[in-house]
Amino acid sequence: SQQGEEDPQALSIQEGENATMNCSYKTSINNLQWYRQNSGRGLVHLILIRSNEREKHSGRLRVTLDTSKKSSSLLITASRAADTASYFCATDSLSGYSTLTFGKGTMLLVSP
Amino acid sequence: DAGITQSPRHKVTETGTPVTLRCHQTENHRYMYWYRQDPGHGLRLIHYSYGVKDTDKGEVSDGYSVSRSKTEDFLLTLESATSSQTSVYFCAISSPGQGNEQFFGPGTRLTVL
Fold first, then answer.
1. A97 and B31 in contact by Cβ < 8 A?
2. What separation in angstroms does the CA of A62 have from each of A2, A23, A47, A97, A107?
3. Residue that wins the pLDDT comparison between B31 and A98
4. What is the dihedral of CA A79, A83, A88, A91, to 10 degrees?
5. Angle at B90 (CA atoms; ends A5, B74), nearest 5 degrees
6. Which of A30, A45, A97 is nearest residue B50 as measured by Cβ atoms?
């Protein structure tokens, strides 16, 4: 079963606007990660936030984590057409060997 | 793609035939993973390996087997392919102690007729 669920499933915005994607998960985690996938390509790691962190920044990306609500958000500021991709959250578990469970993804379309 | 290659990149096969997909890494990462990606299901873990000859099942392992005889190679075998195994297959690698950031290969598109 999917641990993470992204919301919305699809998002369409104009260049320069901000894009916010949300992820909810079910069980306690060590870390939550966000990945990007361009059409026809493999996933690329964007950012990792640990369970004891509330917010993290990387360039135009801002990730928040609320462990009490079991949710995370990814904000992309000043979007560009090149940001058009699918975005996935992934969670680990408190036990086991370094496996991740991925959500179904949010498809972001940024129009020029 | 972080020193990960997958072969073949595309394959069309018939129902009932055996298929082997290969993942090769040059990064010396300890962990290797096989996922399948299908519309509406996202990415699902098939099998993973935490060392040479050490493998374990993932969420959707039925109908698949794996082998890892060398650090750099992780093979995924469909013993008798079925149409439900038509999918895009991704290999990934990671190392412990890095928060399990995973690096993905380019994918293999498999069609079972």
1. yes
2. 24, 14, 9, 28, 18
3. B31
4. -70
5. 130
6. A97
